[in-house]
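Hi all, long-time lurker, first post. I run a small reading group and we've been trying to get comfortable going from sequence to structure in the token notation. Rather than ask abstract questions, I figured I'd post a concrete chain and ask someone more experienced to write out its structure so we can walk through it together at our next meeting. Sequence below, copied exactly:
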Amino acid sequence: MDAGKFITFEGGEGAGKSTQVALLAGYLRDRGNEVVLTREPGGSPGAEQIRDLLVKGDIARWEGITEALLNYAARIEHLSKTVRPALNDGQWVISDRFADSTMAYQGYGHGLGREKVETLHTWALGDFAPDLTLILDLDVEDGLKRATDNGGGEDRYERMDRDFHQRLRQGFLDIAAREPQRCAVIDAAGSIEAVQEAIREAVSSRLGLSR
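-- Answer (accepted) --
Happy to help. Here is the structure in token form:
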């Protein structure tokens, strides 16, 4: 049995990841693929418990390094309990966020730096990486407005200041520039349909999926 494919979605607040994840999953299923949807932080029972520690509470609840360690603790569980078993069964796995979010949020947003996050990543996951990462890019002000309009504001990260979100956006763009073979930047400013079409084109061209 062929191993499945692992696709991750990344981007700032309000970029529309959850909507696009669901649409892509339907598209892939219509073509006969078994698809597992998951998310980070979370994606397995233990990781979901850690998620609550990260996304709830006061903005200043954790130091950046604490957040990074919590994220990787959850990620190890997620990978072991959910992602690897599904891939080994030949299923496609689509995750709403993965390791690039730790680099962007903690490495760039909180100023932890690339080196510390890369060291942590190598120690925790080795050379494991997604087959394709789709980075939904959107102007910070537009993204935060979307998040608010959609009932956001309860997430710790949505309540952080604009400078944090600007650093976050730049972090994702830097990741894409450093790893162009794995990452595709998708303009998330258009309609839901236009963004999904760009995503399907990237999946088809990068992973050899016929349209």
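A couple of things your group might point at:
Residues 6-207 form a domain with the Rossmann fold fold (CATH 3.40.50.300).
The CA atoms of residues 64 and 106 lie 6 Å apart.
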